[in-house]
Sequence to fold (579 residues):
Amino acid sequence: MSAVLEVTNIKKNFGGISAVDGVSFDVHEGEILGLIGPNGCGKSTLFNCILGQLTPSGGEVKLDGKVVTGLRPSELNKLGVSRTFQLLQVFPKLSVRENLILAGQEHQGNMASRLVGRSDAGLTDAANQMIGFFKLDHLAAEPAGGLSYGQQKLLDAAMAFMGGPRLVLLDEPAGGVNPTMLSDLKERLVAINREKNATFVVIEHNMEFVMSLCSRVMVMAEGKVLAMGRPDEVRKNPAVIEAYLGH
Amino acid sequence: MSGFAKPLKIALGLIVIAGLIVVPMNFNRYGLFILSQWAVMTIAAMGLNLTLGYAGQVSLAQGAFVGIGAYAAAIMTTHGWPLPAAIAAAIVLSFAVGWVLGYPALRVQHHYLAFVTLAFSTLAFLVFRNESWLTGGIYGISNIPRPHVFGIATNKPLPFYYVCLGSLAIVSVAVWWLIRSPWGRAFMALRENPLRAQSLGIDTRRYTLMAFAIGSALGGVAGALYAPLTQYIDPVPFNLSLSLDLLMMVIVGGAGFYFGPFLGAMIAVLLPEWLRFTEGYYLMLYAIAVMALLIWSPTGILGILDRYMAARRTKAASALRAVAKSRLETAQ
Fold:
């Protein structure tokens, strides 16, 4: 298995605080890597450094062996890296379908063709398919702001897949989602992972979700990597129990 | 607006267009001037609505772009160039200047951006006033010719009103096309959530600059029509108050609504005229009306309509749900 993403010694300081303090890890093609750790341990900051939302204070990010450190988020997205955010980030005034078309449109054609071409950038079918896949059919024409929290979470995740990404970083996809919808979401993620061979990195606090979904789990504490391994290994690791899981 | 049936909307649109063509035939000189001014200001306000209403970039410089367009047209047409060439030059010039003015928006937002554009507005006014070798300074440029369209002279008010109306029609179609294209969607994404937009591959830098440049270019078009409309320009109409007026048109009509600028410009240009019978009080009444409107509906006139439609949709949806629920209960 080759590494899709190689992160080497990433650091991020905010004033005197090291939010991320020399984190290195690889993500293999087709795997689902879990990222867990207590609040404030630097998980989201690490995501933001990898994705260009923040400029790392040091270190290097490679995508398919090419250095991509410092690229803008939109450029990384064009290279096939997609994400969701910890807090909901849908466009509330646009309909569910419009949200999905928006999420995919920059991957179609160029600036000129997006101006003179079709209004939906040829994505209505793809959006409808995604809507069906995430079981949002009855809501397709509704403004996204009118959906329930859990439905918006599903839409948020669906948007991350519209560009046909190879690598998706999901920041707490399960947060605030009810159990039924959560099992739906998990099922969808596993299906996309298998069918499209998409690679995932998932930040999550819901242990059951992480342990059942991920092939490997990385544990962070105080800006550093505390442990990395199969879910059952990590669960037994005394340092992890001490720092995060509790007795 | 989605609450109306489509044929009804088309019929309504056709009636309005026919009215705009036929009714002014009986207007006097002054009425035609006011209506032409409405068409010209609507074009400028549509530009600002694109920058501010759709893309969410505050600008207090739209009046300066009207000025740039007006001076470009005045200088060129008094030197023998035809108006279409002058309009093209005004578009290119204000597009380019607007693009450059967009760069600060990549760093600062909201009221900071408002101040940057306000400074630009002042700068443009000083250039119009002080560079007399080019602009005629405080004496301005007079005898600005009106064009011949398909061999017809437009010196009389009615033909030139049709030039303004025709230009408004072209701009309206172009803007409608733009906002329903993926660009329009990207502009709205820029306004609603630039962070998320970036993570979806939307090049927010490029779209921000485009929003500024296109919005400014429409200001330029308006200016290029304003110059032959008044046939005389000096720096005064293009000072900060024009930018503020245009901002008000967009806000009052409803920022981010396609028809907002049409309504906003109508209120800003026509209402003061209708209130003239109150003599000294008309500006006061006008100001009070605007304040009352914005307190009642911060999203402008079309915002009221939008809320009403949304309420109706919610009502209809909850009625449907109630029916479904009662059916379920009966089934049990």
